[in-house]
C-alpha cells in the first residue's frame, strides 16, 4: 500500500539517467504510485547533485511540503543516496517514507534589492555568489548592523552547510556539518595589499545574523543561485539570511554526512 503518495521524476540528458528513469517509472506505475508534476509529495531526482539542485529550483515555491529523494547515476553524490542498481530499494524506501521523519537542511534566502525598489527573492541549497561582470568588484559587507569590511576582489560566495562541500570548498572554505545552522562567507580572489584589506579567511556567520553586501552602484554584477546565473544592473544591496526555509529529504537510507565527505574526497583509509 503506498497511501496515494504522489511522485514526480526529474532526470538529466544522459543516456544512463534516461534509462534509469524509464525503469523506475515502470516499477512505480506497477506499484500504483500516482504521478503528479504539479503537486508532488516526493520528487525523485535521477542523475547527480546538479540534477537535484535543478529539481529543488523547479519546486522552490513548494518546499514546505515536497520531499526529495536522489538516485545517482554516476558516483556517490551529496544529495543522492541510491544508485541506479537499487531501484527496488527506492520503492521500499518510498513505502516506508514518513514525512514526520524527513531530514531537513537549511537554505539561504537571497534578497536582491534594486535602486528603484524592485526586489528579487530566491533560496539556495548550495550557495549564491556575486561577481562584478568586468573589473574588480568593490562592495561593503555588513554583518547585521555592523559594517564589517570593504571587499575588493573577484567576488564573494555565501554558502549553506550542505553547500560547504561544493564551490565553497574549492575556494578554501571550511566543510560544515548541516546540523550547524549557519552561513559561510568565502572570498573569491580578494585583493590584499598595503592599500586594500579584507579578512582574508572564510567566516561562519550565526543563524540570526543577516549578511548584507552593498556593491558599488552603477555596475553590472553576475549573481548565481546554485547552478543558475543572472546578470543584473543597479543593485543597491543583497541580503543573505537563514529564514527557516529548509529542503526535506525522504528519511530513507540517508548516508551520514561525514561518511559522505570522506567517501567523496578522501576514499578508503587503509
Ligand atoms: P555540476 O552539476 O556539474 O556540479 C559540479 C560538481 O559539483 C559536481 O561534481 C557535483 O557533484 C558537485 N557538487 C554539487 N553540489 C555539491 C555539494 N553540495 N557538495 C559537494 N559537491 C557538490 O555543476 P553546475 O550545475 O554548474 O552547478 C551546480 C553546483 O556545482 C554549484 O552550486 C556549485 O557549488 C558547484 N560548482 C562547483 C565548482 C567548483 O568547485 N569549482 C564550479 C562550478 C560549480
UniProtKB/TrEMBL annotation:
Cofactor entry: a divalent metal cation
Broad class of enzyme this protein falls into: transferase
Its EC number(s): 2.7.1.23
Domain of life: Bacteria
Residues annotated as catalytic: 49
Gene Ontology cellular component annotations, sorted alphabetically: cytoplasm
Localization in the cell: Cytoplasm
Binding positions (NAD(+)): 49-50, 54, 126-127, 152, 154, 165-170, 189
A single MF term (Gene Ontology): NAD binding
Sequence intervals crossing the membrane: none
Gene3D superfamilies: Probable inorganic polyphosphate/atp-NAD kinase, domain 1 (3.40.50.10330), Probable inorganic polyphosphate/atp-NAD kinase, domain 2 (2.60.200.30)
Any single biological process term in GO: NADP+ biosynthetic process
Alphabetized Pfam families for the sequence: NAD_kinase (PF01513), NAD_kinase_C (PF20143)
Chemical reaction(s) catalysed: NAD(+) + ATP = ADP + NADP(+) + H(+)
InterPro entries hit by this protein: ATP-NAD_kinase_N, ATP-NAD_kinase_PpnK-typ_C, NAD/diacylglycerol_kinase_sf, NADK
Keyword terms: ATP-binding, Cytoplasm, Kinase, NAD, NADP, Nucleotide-binding, Transferase
PANTHER family in alphabetical order: NAD KINASE
Family to which this protein belongs: Belongs to the NAD kinase family.
Function: Involved in the regulation of the intracellular balance of NAD and NADP, and is a key enzyme in the biosynthesis of NADP. Catalyzes specifically the phosphorylation on 2'-hydroxyl of the adenosine moiety of NAD to yield NADP.
Protein name in UniProt: NAD kinase
Organism: Lactococcus taiwanensis
Lineage: Bacteria, Bacillati, Bacillota, Bacilli, Lactobacillales
Amino acid at each position: 500500500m503506498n497511501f496515494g503518495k504522489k511522485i514526480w521524476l526529474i532526470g538529466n540528458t544522459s543516456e544512463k539517467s534516461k534509462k534509469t528513469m524509464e525503469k523506475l517509472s515502470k516499477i512505480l506505475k506497477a506499484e500504483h504510485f500516482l504521478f503528479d508534476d504539479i503537486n508532488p509529495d516526493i520528487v525523485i531526482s535521477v542523475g547527480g547533485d546538479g540534477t537535484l539542485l535543478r529539481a529543488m529550483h523547479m519546486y522552490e515555491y513548494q518546499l514546505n511540503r515536497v520531499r526529495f529523494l536522489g538516485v545517482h547515476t554516476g558516483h556517490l553524490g551529496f544529495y543522492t543516496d541510491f544508485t541506479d542498481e537499487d531501484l527496488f530499494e527506492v520503492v521500499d524506501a518510498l513505502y516506508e517514507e514518513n514525512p514526520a521523519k524527513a531530514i531537513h537542511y537549511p537554505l539561504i534566502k537571497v534578497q536582491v534589492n534594486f535602486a528603484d525598489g524592485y526586489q528579487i527573492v530566491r533560496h539556495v541549497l548550495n550557495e549564491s555568489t556575486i561577481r562584478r561582470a568586468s573589473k574588480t568588484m568593490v562592495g561593503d559587507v555588513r554583518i547585521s548592523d555592523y559594517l564589517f569590511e570593504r571587499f575588493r576582489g573577484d567576488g564573494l560566495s555565501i554558502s549553506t552547510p550542505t553547500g560547504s562541500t561544493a564551490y565553497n570548498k574549492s575556494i578554501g572554505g571550511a566543510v560544515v556539518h548541516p546540523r550547524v545552522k549557519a552561513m559561510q562567507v568565502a572570498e573569491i580572489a580578494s585583493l590584499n595589499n598595503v592599500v586594500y584589506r579584507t579578512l582574508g579567511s572564510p567566516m561562519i556567520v550565526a543563524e540570526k545574523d543577516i549578511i548584507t553586501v552593498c556593491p558599488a552602484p552603477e555596475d553590472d554584477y553576475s549573481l548565481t543561485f546554485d547552478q543558475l546565473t543572472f546578470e543584473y544592473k543597479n543593485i543597491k544591496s543583497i541580503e543573505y539570511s537563514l529564514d527557516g526555509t529548509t529542503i526535506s529529504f525522504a528519511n530513507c537510507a540517508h548516508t551520514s554526512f561525514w561518511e559522505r565527505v570522506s567517501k567523496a574526497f578522501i576514499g578508503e583509509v587503509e
